[in-house]
Amino acid sequence: MADSKLRVQLIGDSSRLTGSLNTASARLSKFGKKISSIGASMQRFALPLAIAGGAAIKMGVDFDKSMTKIKSLVGLAGDAVDKMGKQARQMAIETGQSTKAADALFFITSAGLRGEQAMDVLNASLKASAVGLGEVSQIADLATSAMNAYGSDTLSASGATDVLVAAVREGKLSSEELAGSMGSVLPTASALGVSFNDVGAAMAAMSRTGTDAAQGATQLNAILMGITKTGPAQDK
Description:
- With about 240 residues, the protein is mostly helical.
């Protein structure tokens, strides 16, 4: 049987096919550019996201370290510290002071405050710091000093921070200056029945004449000490 070949020749209009192929090619090219653009955008976001993630991890580690310090150095029971830690995290998120809450809680518990009383001081200090009054730990330090000097039954956490806010607002002092100096006056003032509010007002008034916080505290303490020395002599 002889081999046979069938040859078929198709002749037609190829313009439609060519046009379709060109359209498909253009669409693929456009899609490729979009993918490249998305890739570039992801690269721009990758570094900030990595940095933010690293910061969040560090923040969590620092928070846990402060909680461990409270357990080991302050001597509180682990379950009590864990409970306060959960509350502190929530307060920190609400006030935007996440990096400082744990350190402040360490100061507060070291001052002898516990439970809800400690959390009240932390909450008041975080809110005061959030409105620009200074570092949370410094505010908490002064608030606890005042509460210990006058008694928590007499002076609440919110009351202590309110006095600090008023003194900063009415005087020419920063909260950092007050926190570092005002505490030295409180034992004498409380012993004489001079209120924390009066101490804050006196410090603010002296600052208006150019007296810094350290000098104001020294002068006010000298005045109060003078009263204790001259008082009994005047009674005779």
